Amino acid sequence: MRRPIIVGNWKMNTNLADAIVLATSVKNAVADLGVEIILCPPFIWLYPLAEILEKSPSNLKLGAQNMWFAEKGAMTGEVSPNMVKVLAKYVILGHSERRSNFLEDNNLICDKVTAALENGLTPIVCVGEKHKRSLAKKPGRPNKLVTENDLFSQLKGSLKNISRNDADKIIIAYEPVWAIGTGDAATGGYAAEVIKDLRDILADLFGGPVSERIHILYGGSVDSENVREFVFQPEIDGVLVGGASLKAKEFIKICREAAGGR
Ligand code: PEP
């Protein structure tokens, strides 16, 4: 069974003091939980947090929220994979806020995924449809939800240059855009149906056994009240948490609930 993964995406939040308190609280609370936890603070806090988490439990790691794909050069304001890897093991790529606010397309995201893998970083690749779908069924596929083609092309486009050997080093985060930061989380059933479709695509791209090893998370308004609805679904391998990852008590509760949920 794939071990559940809980990602905390702090986005552009926290001052240094808050970041230290939050990371230290999580570190002190999660040692014995059977889940992997990845904290993704703003770039600028990676260095102090890497020092604080140096002797942290082995199930707690740091991730970046983004990076550029080239090693170095005239890219004012950007951070390269070989810079990130000094401080973090994971990197979120293709988050919907990067796609919409910074116009990142699948080709660019694929270049970043490739660069992350080349540098030994685990990419957490986000995909998600913009609009909530009805539970209408596809003709001939009665158990499949109708989801936007855009979602599937995001997955295929973001992974198009990835080899079968590397595919299971990637984590996918299914994050419906309509559920991010809105309080309107998908139901566990909806997320599980879409994730089954995504896994089918991964099987087409990389083969069934490889696709079975890839973690696919759900993200979008997850909190301690609803997290079990997702992690109880065998198709869903964890959650990516935004707003609720900024409150230590709430995030720790999410991790505990998730650890008990499988
Ligand atoms: C996110 O940051 O990707 C996210 C899912 O945010 P929230 O949990 O606040 O919806």
From TrEMBL:
The keyword 4Fe-4S does not apply. Pathway: Carbohydrate degradation; glycolysis; D-glyceraldehyde 3-phosphate from glycerone phosphate: step 1/1; Carbohydrate biosynthesis; gluconeogenesis. GO terms for biological process: gluconeogenesis; glyceraldehyde-3-phosphate biosynthetic process; glycerol catabolic process; glycolytic process. SUPFAM superfamilies: Triosephosphate isomerase (TIM) (SSF51351). It is an enzyme of class 5 (isomerase). Pfam families: TIM (PF00121). Substrate binds at N9, W10, K11, G181, S221, G242, G243. Keywords: Cytoplasm, Gluconeogenesis, Glycolysis, Isomerase. It is found in: Cytoplasm. One of its GO terms (molecular function) is triose-phosphate isomerase activity. Its EC number is 5.3.1.1. InterPro entries: Aldolase_TIM, TIM_sf, TrioseP_Isoase_bac/euk, Triosephosphate_isomerase, Triosephosphate_isomerase_AS. The active site is at H95 (electrophile), E175 (proton acceptor). CDD domains: TIM. It catalyses: D-glyceraldehyde 3-phosphate = dihydroxyacetone phosphate. Gene3D superfamilies: Aldolase class I (3.20.20.70). The keyword Isomerase applies. Belongs to the triosephosphate isomerase family. Homodimer. This is Triosephosphate isomerase. It comes from Berkelbacteria bacterium GW2011_GWE1_39_12. The gene is tpiA.
